[in-house]
């Protein structure tokens, strides 16, 4: 699952951070950044409702491949700037975090053929 | 971070590894460290602190025309050598191996005692304090401050004598580098010259580097910048990704902690080749119950902090989890200092 797949699956829009050819290794859905930092997975897709610079900075610390913010929350300009600076794709989705989790799960299940 | 002074001792029969003289041991005080975060680095300008970490002993030492004697030379010969060259001590050397030192005090005692014609090996000092060529200059300054000696022999990793460093050498290079740094800060000038460059051969870690970041209370807009900068430095140094992540997590958690829980403070990052150290130091109010604060899920964060995605009470425990060594000291109301160390394996 790459950035294009994420955008399409979550009815989202890539708003900052640019394109990337990385693929999803681990999915983390969380609004508490310390919980995100606990995760040891690689190529994390971070699904969150936290529309702040810190979501991007946290994503950068754990080497996340993409951040998705839900419920069509307005994204602060500084958040987009940080995403551009750190090169982390930032996607805005109108879906709830729960709905995103379900769709991502279904996609990955289909992708793995199980 | 504490750097133990190298003091080698023993008589001639054990003197294969020996080096420069610490013959007046009663004057020797303990060297406590480089004058950096562990001690009182907070009051020193950052540019000087960085310079003292970036420059190494080998950048300032004299590595050619080292005036020395051999063990069979007489004390009288050493006396004349010192007189001719206006120096207060000479190392006793065979090949590259340092056996001892004859100082001006040894000469005076030899004149008084009537053994000025004896070979140096009989009266040279064999309790030796030395510097290592890859030590940061900060350590050398601490040695000069803590010992009475005006110069120190410098050894390489093979324990060979590779130079001598005096206070005059340090002053000369420091003046030059400070001038360069000032020119650079004022704009346009090149970064420091060869003496200040990191030993950054391909794929190798720089031996010593240090950065300090000021963290402002409640400035969540900028919180995390230090950790991201540290992560970038580690990436440029070629550190393994998994280790970078652990260090960055600790730095980030501690940075956020200072920002949301304290009156402000600093994050200091030190990379010394085989170890990375993150030191978080704040100005208060301190933690009443450190054990409680270290438990997962315990936090004094308010709703505003939680709305920003923090305050889950995982910061300290997360930092402890990822570090190879963790220590915390806190005093109410003075403040809290957290130390996280990470071992860096040698690259193949």
Q: Helical region count of chain B?
A: 12
The average pLDDT score of chain B comes to 78
- Unreliable segments of 5+ consecutive residues of chain A: none
Output the helix-strand order of chain B.
EHHHEEHHEHEEHEHHEEHHHEE
Average pLDDT of chain A: 94
Count the DSSP helices of chain A: 5
Number of strands of chain A: 5
Q: SS-based structural class of chain A?
A: alpha/beta
Assembly state of the chains shown: heterodimer
Largest sheet of chain B: 5 strands, antiparallel
- What's the N-to-C terminus distance of chain A? 15 Å
Give the DSSP E fraction of chain A (strand runs of 2 or more residues): 15-25%
**Largest interface (CB < 8 Å):** A-B, 21 and 24 residues
The secondary-structure class of chain B comes to: alpha+beta
Please bin the fraction of helical residues of chain B. Answer: 25-40%
Report the C-alpha radius of gyration of chain B, rounded. 24 Å
Strand order of the largest sheet of chain A: 1-5-4-3-2
Tell me the Rg of chain A in angstroms. 13 Å
- Principal-axes shape call of chain A: globular
Main sheet summary of chain A: 5 strands, mixed
Would you summarize the structure shown here?
The complex is a heterodimer of chains A (114) and B (348). Chain A has helices at residues 3-9, 33-38, 53-61, 77-86, 97-112; strands spanning 13-16, 26-29, 44-48, 66-69, 90-92.
Structure description:
The complex is a heterodimer of chains A (114) and B (348). Helix content of chain A is 42%, strand content 18%. Chain A has 114 residues and is an alpha/beta fold. In chain A, α4 links the parallel β4 and β5. Chain A is globular and about 40 Å long. The two termini of chain A are 15 Å apart. In chain B, 34% of the residues lie in helices and 20% in strands. Chain B has 12 helices and 11 strands. In chain B, a hairpin with a 3-residue loop joins β10 and β11. The two termini of chain B are 26 Å apart. Classes of the chains: A alpha/beta (114), B alpha+beta (348).
């Amino acid at each position: 699952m790459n950035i294009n797949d994420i955008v399409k699956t979550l009815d989202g829009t890539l708003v900052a951070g640019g394109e990337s050819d990385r693929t999803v290794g681990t999915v983390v859905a969380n609004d508490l950044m310390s919980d995100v930092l606990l995760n040891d997975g690689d190529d994390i897709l971070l699904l969150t409702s936290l529309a702040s610079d810190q979501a991007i900075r946290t994503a950068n610390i754990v080497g996340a491949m993409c951040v998705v913010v839900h419920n069509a929350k307005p994204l602060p300009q500084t958040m987009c700037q940080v995403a551009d600076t750190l090169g982390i794709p930032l996607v805005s989705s109108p879906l709830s975090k729960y709905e995103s989790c379900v769709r991502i799960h279904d996609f990955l299940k289909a992708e793995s053929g199980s | 971070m504490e750097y133990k002074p190298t003091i080698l001792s023993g008589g001639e029969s054990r003197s294969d590894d020996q080096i420069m003289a610490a013959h007046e041991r009663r004057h020797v005080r303990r060297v406590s460290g480089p004058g950096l975060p562990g001690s009182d680095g907070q009051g020193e300008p950052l540019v000087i602190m960085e310079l003292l970490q970036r420059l190494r002993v080998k950048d300032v030492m004299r590595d050619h025309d080292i005036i020395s004697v051999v063990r069979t030379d007489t004390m009288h010969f050493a006396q004349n050598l010192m007189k001719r060259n206006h120096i207060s001590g000479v190392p006793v050397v065979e090949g590259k191996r340092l056996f001892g030192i004859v100082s001006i005090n040894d000469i005076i005692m030899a004149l008084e005692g009537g053994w000025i014609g004896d070979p140096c090996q009989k009266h040279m000092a064999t309790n030796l304090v030395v510097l290592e060529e890859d030590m940061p200059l900060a350590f050398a300054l601490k040695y000069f401050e803590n010992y009475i000696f005006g110069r120190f022999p410098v050894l390489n990793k093979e324990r060979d004598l590779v130079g001598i460093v005096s206070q005059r050498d340090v002053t000369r290079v420091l003046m030059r580098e400070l001038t360069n740094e000032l020119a650079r800060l004022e704009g346009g000038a090149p970064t420091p010259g060869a003496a200040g460059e990191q030993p950054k051969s391909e794929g190798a870690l720089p031996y010593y580097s240090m950065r300090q970041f000021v963290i402002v209370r409640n400035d969540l807009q900028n919180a995390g910048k230090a950790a991201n900068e540290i992560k970038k430095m580690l990436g440029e140094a070629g550190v393994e990704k998994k280790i970078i992540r652990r260090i960055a997590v600790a730095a980030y958690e501690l940075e956020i902690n200072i920002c949301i829980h304290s009156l402000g403070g600093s994050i200091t990052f030190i990379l010394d080749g085989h170890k990375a150290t993150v030191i978080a130091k704040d100005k208060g109010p301190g933690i009443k119950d450190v054990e409680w604060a270290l438990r997962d899920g315990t936090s004094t964060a308010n709703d505003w902090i939680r709305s920003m995605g923090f305050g889950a009470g995982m910061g300290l425990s997360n930092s402890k989890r990822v570090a190879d060594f963790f220590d915390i000291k806190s005093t109410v109301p003075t403040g809290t200092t957290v130390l996280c160390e990470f071992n860096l394996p040698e690259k193949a």
